[in-house]
Design goal:
The complex is a heterodimer. Chain A is α+β, with helices and mostly antiparallel strands. Chain A has one domain (42-326): Orthogonal Bundle (Cytochrome-c3 Hydrogenase, chain B). Helices cover 48% and strands 15% of the residues of chain A. Chain A is built from 14 helices and ten strands. In chain A, helix 5 (120-141) packs antiparallel against helix 6 (163-187). By secondary structure, chain B is of the alpha+beta class. Chain B has one domain (32-104): 2-Layer Sandwich (Alpha-Beta Plaits), CATH 3.30.70. In chain B, the strands form two sheets. Chain B has a two-stranded antiparallel sheet. Chain B has a two-stranded antiparallel sheet with strand order 2-3. Chain B is elongated and about 65 Å long. The model of chain B has no long low-confidence stretch (mean pLDDT 86). The chains are: A alpha+beta, B alpha+beta. The interface between A and B is medium-sized, with 29 and 21 residues. Bound molecules: iron/sulfur cluster (2 copies). The site of one iron/sulfur cluster (SF4) has 15 residues of chain B, from helix 2.
Chain lengths: 383, 104
């Protein structure tokens, strides 16, 4: 006899609230069904009603955490569409902010993952160190979260010479504490007990379900757009593509933590090699009919933008595919065979911007009785 | 022994990392993008700011015949301050306010 355990769709702080219908046999999950599309905001339609320049700010608002990578990808797409080449310095500044974003996104992931497994000390420590990155971003872009730095044809704000020593100092501090977290993640008994061999995604399944980003890399797939299809300055910078072979939640965490260290390396290099020159080139907003596709590596994986122009100041069509969407298919193979208690951490392990505020309905398939539990209760059970 | 324990003890005897806001305020970095403010004396009525604003937050005030910003829509991007030829709009360092139909 199986029960149905619906989770969702009310996930208030998730950018794509989704509905999971788990079929459970006792504690074991035997099937899962995912339904998407609860957070349709009509952004793609809104894109085709504003001009190219105003759309930069709309792209930035698709996701708060990865706002720079969205606006950078959008700007790169439009630059490709119009045949504009942004100046070198602008590309470096974009790289710096994008990598800072990766660091803070991964630290945020670490904090919430620690909270999910009941390790609140690590949660506090990770979020404390995340402030260093937020302060750095405030320093160079004038805003903690939304940087408003990108524009078509370059960037609007400069990384000034006097910012660099301060940033290098903060990066050193961050490197030290991230190294400590990486150690802890690999040796602490609580973490190993809750994350190791949980939500395993084998390499074959990762290929089959087209996993992207850290999820794919944790299943030993060397997949990183920064390396496979270099954009911006990534060809000139040296960094390693981090992979792990286990494919479980622990490996996904390790990949993210080691990626933070790589990102720190990239930011340091970019700060050292920052070329001088103009920040932006003037652009003509009337773009002749054309179409293009651009991909970048967001903190969560591959981000794809497609754009088509029609000779006016507004695009005809912009299509966005976010990395979380790319990872939903592989979630099924992560969940099946696991237990109900693993649901929160496995769900969080793909980093879907999750707010743990859900409600679940328990439907007894035999009697047809429906009872509603809130997420607090679900949390209590899993401990 | 849990591996995190030394760190916990170390942090127990440190001063808090957080700032006692609102009694203590952190110094904002230069170039912080706070609430935009308009100096109506300086405005030459070129309306460039209205065209630059991505959120259509700026409209023409009927009384003074100068631009006025509806802060409920403003996203603090700073485009208007960038295009204004006379620097009549500047981004201030002010970030503490609530707004419903607040205009500046
Ligand atoms: S700061 Fe940006 S959103 Fe606000 S009024 Fe100026 S241009 Fe518009
Ligand atoms: S851009 Fe400056 S000068 Fe022109 S209308 Fe706006 S505030 Fe006035």
């Amino acid at each position: 006899m199986t029960f149905v355990l619906p989770v969702g769709p009310q996930h208030p702080s998730l950018k794509e609230p989704e509905f999971f219908r788990f079929e459970v046999k006792g504690e074991e999950i035997v099937d899962v069904d995912i339904r998407l599309g609860y957070a349709h905001r009509g952004i793609e339609e809104a894109f085709s009603r504003r001009n190219y320049k105003h759309n930069v700010y709309l792209a930035e608002r698709i996701c708060g955490i990865c706002n720079v990578v969205h606006s950078t990808t959008y700007c790169q797409t439009i630059e490709q569409l119009a045949g504009i080449e942004p100046p070198e310095r602008a590309k470096y500044i974009r790289t710096i902010i994008m990598e800072l974003e990766r660091i803070h996104s991964h630290l945020l992931w670490l904090g919430v993952a620690a909270h999910q497994i009941g390790f609140d000390t690590l949660f506090m420590l990770a979020w404390r160190d995340r402030e260093e990155v937020m302060d750095m971003r405030e320093l160079i872009s004038g805003g903690r979260v939304h940087s408003a730095t990108n524009t078509i044809g370059g960037v609007r704000r400069n990384v000034k010479l006097e910012h660099i020593p301060e940033m290098l100092r903060r990066l050193d501090k961050l490197e030290k504490s991230t190294g400590y977290y990486a150690d802890l993640w690999g040796s602490d008994r609580t973490i190993l007990a809750r994350c190791s061999k949980v939500g395993v995604l084998s390499k074959d399944d990762a290929v089959k379900f087209c996993a992207v980003g850290p999820v794919a890399r944790a299943s030993n797939l060397k997949l990183d757009i920064r390396r496979n299809d270099p954009y911006g300055t990534y060809e000139a910078l040296s960094f390693d593509v981090v992979t792990e072979s286990e494919g479980d939640v622990w490996a996904r965490g390790t990949v993210r933590l080691r990626e933070i260290l790589e990102s720190i390396r990239i930011v340091r290099q970019a700060l050292h090699e920052l070329p001088s020159g103009p920040l932006r080139v003037p652009v003509e907003l009337k773009i002749p009919p054309n179409e293009t596709l651009e991909r970048t590596e967001a903190p969560r994986g591959e981000l794809v933008y497609y754009a088509r122009s029609n000779g006016t100041e507004t695009p005809e069509r912009i299509r966005v595919r976010t990395p979380t969407y790319g990872n939903f298919a592989s979630m099924k193979s992560m969940f099946i065979g696991g237990t109900v208690a693993e649901i929160p951490i496995v769900m969080w392990s793909i980093d879907p911007c999750f707010g743990c505020n859900d409600r679940a309905t328990i439907l007894d398939a035999r009697t047809g009785k429906v009872s509603v539990v809130n997420f607090k209760q679900l949390k209590r059970w899993r401990r | 022994m849990p591996r995190i324990l030394p760190k916990v003890l170390q942090n127990l005897f440190r001063k808090p990392f957080t700032v006692k806001y609102p009694y203590v305020k952190r110094e904002l970095p230069k170039g912080y993008r706070g609430r935009p403010a308009i100096d109506r004396e300086k405005c030459i009525r070129c309306w460039l700011c209205i065209r630059a604003c991505p959120d259509r937050a700026i409209s023409i005030d009927r009384g003074t015949k100068t631009p006025s910003i509806w802060l409920g829509r403003c996203t603090f991007c700073g485009e208007c301050a960038e295009v204004c030829p006379t620097k009549a709009i500047i981004m201030t360092e002010e970030f503490e306010y609530t707004t419903l139909y607040n205009v500046t």
